[in-house]
Design a protein that fits this description.
The protein is an alpha/beta fold. The protein is built from ten helices and ten strands. It has one domain: 3-Layer(aba) Sandwich (Rossmann fold).
Length: 287
């Protein structure tokens, strides 16, 4: 995959692209605090598509959003559509992991005329909030906005950053190294630091309710294939993720043993589960 960048109203958005020009177009969206390198292992196993893996705003080599703009799933979705416009893509498929799958779900519900199919890995819909916590979440977010910013963590070298990413949990070393290599930047002679926007670690001021998320999922018109890892993540328990899948009108579900980053750590199994789904024509069978 090769580097690319496009200028949009959301700033310069960068990423990696590869595959077959003129083949079905697929935009790939990574997870929270990851970047476009999340799809490098899988890209080597997906034939017959033109794949663009985007660094979401504030991640990887993409611009940080201005202070007046928040990192919400709606803003992320608008930014991705802006990137697609800059690429000259009117209709395309979406491949999303974790946060990226949440953003892709919202995009698919918001503009069904533009999305041909959705492949969601380890998420379906955005994180939701109990309506009874709306005021509490808003107050906490506003207090955090006024608090002093913590200094960015410095690492002596990339190996130290990889070690920290692994220790944070949920990812193997080889996968962490891919993300870290794209996700750090040298700071003078002091070492390296993350180049993602520190505001990404702040709480979102307002979230959708679970009922709103399910209404959006029910509005999706295109074919959807969902890949979940087993065991389920604590914040997305199996009962919830299956209830969300049941909202889909035209969905297929695959469950694979593995961790949250299974698309990086088990790319052969995930590619087999994807099959020919992302190509033109009718959805293929699961692997």
């Amino acid at each position: 995959m090769r580097e690319f960048a496009v200028d949009t109203d959301f700033g310069r958005l960068a990423g990696l692209r590869g595959g077959t020009a003129g083949a079905p177009k697929v935009l790939a969206l990574h997870g929270w605090l990851d970047n476009a390198a999340s799809f490098v292992p899988l890209s080597r196993r997906l034939d017959g598509i033109e794949l663009v893996a985007l660094d979401l705003p504030g991640h990887g080599a993409s611009a940080h959003l201005p202070l007046a703009a928040g990192y919400t799933v709606v803003n992320m979705a608008r930014a991705v559509f802006a990137a697609a416009d800059a690429l000259g893509w009117d209709r395309f498929g979406l491949l999303g992991h974790s946060l990226g799958a949440g953003v892709a779900s919202l995009m698919t519900a918001a503009a069904p005329q533009r999305i041909e199919r959705l492949l969601a890995i380890e998420a379906l819909g955005a994180l939701a909030e109990d309506e009874a916590r709306t005021a509490v979440r808003l107050r906490e977010a506003f207090c955090e906005t006024r608090s002093a910013r913590r200094p960015l963590r410095l690492f002596a070298d990339a190996t130290s950053a990889v070690r920290a990413r692994v220790q944070a949990g949920g990812i193997h070393e080889d996968a962490a190294r891919l993300l870290v290599e794209r996700g750090i930047i040298k700071v003078g002679d002091d070492g390296f630091t993350w180049r993602s926007d520190p505001r990404l670690t702040r709480d979102t001021a307002v979230r959708l309710s679970e009922a709103q998320v399910r209404d959006l999922l029910a509005a999706i018109e295109c074919p959807v294939r969902v890949i979940y890892a087993e065991p389920a993540q604590h914040y997305f328990p199996d009962a919830l993720r299956r209830a969300r899948f049941d909202c889909l009108e035209n969905g297929e579900l695959v469950v694979l043993d593995g961790g949250h980053h299974l698309h990086m750590e088990q790319p052969d199994a995930v590619a087999a589960a994807i099959g020919d789904f992302l190509r033109a024509g009718e959805p293929g069978q699961t692997g």
